[in-house]
Write a structure and sequence with these properties.
Helices cover 34% and strands 23% of the residues. It contains 16 helices and 21 strands. The strands form three sheets. The chain has a twelve-stranded mixed beta sheet. It has a six-stranded antiparallel barrel with strand order 1-2-5-4-3-7. Strands 14-15 form a two-stranded parallel ribbon. Strand 8 and strand 9 form a beta hairpin. The longest helix has 22 residues. It is globular, with a radius of gyration of 31 Å. The relative contact order is 0.13. The structure holds adenosine-5'-triphosphate and magnesium ion (MG). Adenosine-5'-triphosphate binds next to helix 3. The site of adenosine-5'-triphosphate has 16 residues, from helix 3.
């Protein structure tokens, strides 16, 4: 512990074990959110012991008794000229606690005492407060108010899941990249559901060189995905395929929207499914639809007319699956993703929401089954970007059920969720409240703030009020991953970002250059080419 403590004030007025007021000289008052330290006495193992109580300045107030708002400006000027203006400054600090000998955070039971000095918290004590042993630490950045103090989170906190919440453009994806880097270094198996291809460049450094962990990363893409980037841009891309004939009847009913109590429809579909399985090893939804359309011919084989009618009704439901265009002739085994110390980015860009949702459902269900049955024994971290799409507050999706199951039971087996969203108000509240740690970045929308407040009792009113004031890359972190709430500035990534905003100004400048290249002559040429193209099209139609 530093021996040069800087005294900045004295505890005044009423103080409790949770909060206290302190007075400072006007030029020594620490700023809001600064960490301060005071000493108190606690009973430890029946003995009174001096402890270092850490607190955070929540409010700073200044006032004058001579310069009151009732006075005329000229009178105020005279008071100042005569040197009679008084100024006092005081602050309100919230007690965070003290660390016991084993480094656990303890809440004081006794009130801190008026008259005791208040010091600026030294960096070494703050670092002890906000970091964890190397094996356990996820190094995310630095304290906003004390940039020399590194902040880490406890990997153990993932056992109760994590939510990363912020309005668009505040740094959620950037931060998730930081966490992925840390987890991969520590041996995590990570699955990233990535609707916008924001993570496809993680295997590269900021300088577009090969990242030292690139061998531990794979990008998966369904053949139906048009992809935001080409395979050549991304590098190594593996297909993620689902073979329709590998699905069970229950799964086909689920994706077709056939409820289990539609017994005749389920049975009718079942007959067609069994027939098809006996005829072909590999088939597509179109084949099943064709089979159903021949249901009238089943009369000869004694099938109950109700079931035949059920099969005909199934056609309407199955049409939706035919349109999904996600199925191929082979299924990718999830063991390709479930590898120790490995990141699998599932690039869902360019797919319909429904198809992305279905792929998410398949992957998460397979992962859960493999981990719960003990086939895969290492911790798995499942990141769901745009989580409100997969598990919305209203409406149903394929993946909502399995996400809820992982949220409720995953920790028993070692599957941990990281839900990322810009619209906490639109995500299912059960899923959000199962996330016992939250990293919240800039958030101005009151509906979203309320959704966050009601899902986390740890986020006090003052922190909530401060969310709109956070800058890009700054975060409030609460919950089981930290000993006390932290305001952190997220560190720089070593991996390349994907999907950052387009350079609008640069692109518009090149649009001007392009437009200027169009002289009247080549504009004429362009028109002629357009006309040729048009006539060609017309000729082609004839
Ligand atoms: N900690 C940081 N350090 C440096 N730059 C950052 C940091 N966090 C975010 N940025 C920059 O801010 C921009 C927006 O960040 P990011 O894409 O992570 O936001 P987002 O919250 O995921 O937004 P969206 O909701 O649109 O996906 C990016 O261009 C990124 O480079
Ligand atoms: Mg993002």
């Amino acid at each position: 512990m530093s021996d040069t403590l800087k005294e900045v004030g004295v505890i005044i007025g009423e103080a409790s074990s949770n909060e206290f007021y302190f007075s400072s000289k006007p030029n020594e008052m620490p700023s809001r959110w600064e960490y301060v330290l005071t000493y108190s006495e606690e009973d430890i193992d029946g003995q009174p012991k001096k402890v270092e109580v850490m607190a955070q300045v929540e409010r700073v107030i200044s006032a004058s008794q001579a310069l009151t708002k009732e006075l005329d400006f000229s009178v105020i000027e005279k008071i100042i000229e005569a040197g009679l203006a008084d100024r006092k400054v005081w602050g309100k600090a919230r007690v965070l606690g003290y660390l016991n000998e084993s480094g656990d955070l303890q809440q004081p039971k006794k009130a801190v005492m008026p008259g005791k000095p208040v010091y600026i918290a030294p960096a070494d004590l703050l670092e002890k407060f906000y970091s964890y042993p190397e094996d356990e630490a996820i190094k995310v950045g630095y304290l906003i108010t004390r940039s020399e103090v590194p902040v880490s989170l406890s990997i153990k906190g993932f056992r109760r899941h994590l939510a990363i919440i912020a309005q668009t453009g505040s740094g959620k994806t950037y931060l998730s990249g930081v966490i992925v880097e840390e987890l991969l270094r520590k041996g995590g198996t990570i699955i990233m559901l990535d609707p916008h291809a924001d993570y496809v460049f993680l295997s590269q450094t900021n300088e577009k060189k090969r990242h030292e962990l690139s061998d531990r990363m794979t990008i998966f893409r369904n053949p139906a995905s048009t992809g935001r980037y080409t395979n050549a841009e991304v590098g190594k891309v593996e297909p993620y395929e689902i073979c329709f004939s590998d699905l069970s009847l229950d799964e086909i009913c689920l994706i077709s929207g056939i409820r289990s109590d539609y017994t005749n429809i389920v049975s009718g579909l079942g007959v067609a499914f069994e027939q098809l399985k006996n005829e072909k090893a590999v088939f597509q939804p179109e084949d099943l639809l064709e089979k159903i359309q021949q249901a009238d011919s089943w009369k000869d084989t004694g099938v109950d007319p109700k079931i035949i009618n059920g099969a005909k009704d199934a056609a309407r439901y199955l049409a939706r699956v035919v349109k999904m265009r996600v199925f191929t002739d082979a299924s990718t085994n999830v063991s390709k993703m479930l590898r120790p110390r490995h990141l699998s980015v599932v690039d869902l860009s360019g797919l319909d929401d429904e198809v992305s949702d279905y792929i998410g459902f398949r992957i998460l269900s397979d992962i859960y089954e493999n981990v719960a049955s003990g086939k895969f024994e290492y911790p798995v971290f499942v990141f769901v970007e745009e989580a409100h799409r997969f598990i919305p507050a209203q409406g149903s999706t394929y993946s909502a059920g399995i996400i809820k199951k992982i949220a409720a039971e995953g920790r028993k087996f070692g599957v941990f969720l990281v839900l990322i969203t810009q619209r906490p108000f639109k995500i299912h509240s059960d899923a959000l409240s199962q996330c016992n740690s939250q990293i919240i970045m800039r958030l101005t929308n009151p509906q979203d703030q309320n959704a966050v407040a009601s899902s986390s009792e740890r986020l006090g009113q003052t922190l909530l009020e401060d969310l709109p004031g956070l800058n890009k890359g700054e975060a409030v972190i609460v919950g089981e991953m930290t000993r006390a709430p932290i305001m952190a500035r997220i560190r720089k990534r070593t991996t390349r970002e994907g999907g950052s905003d387009i350079d609008i100004i640069g692109k518009m400048k090149s649009a001007i250059e392009k437009a200027n290249e169009e002289t009247p002559e080549n504009e004429g040429e362009r028109l002629r080419n357009d006309l040729r193209g048009f006539l060609g099209d017309e000729e082609g139609k004839q």
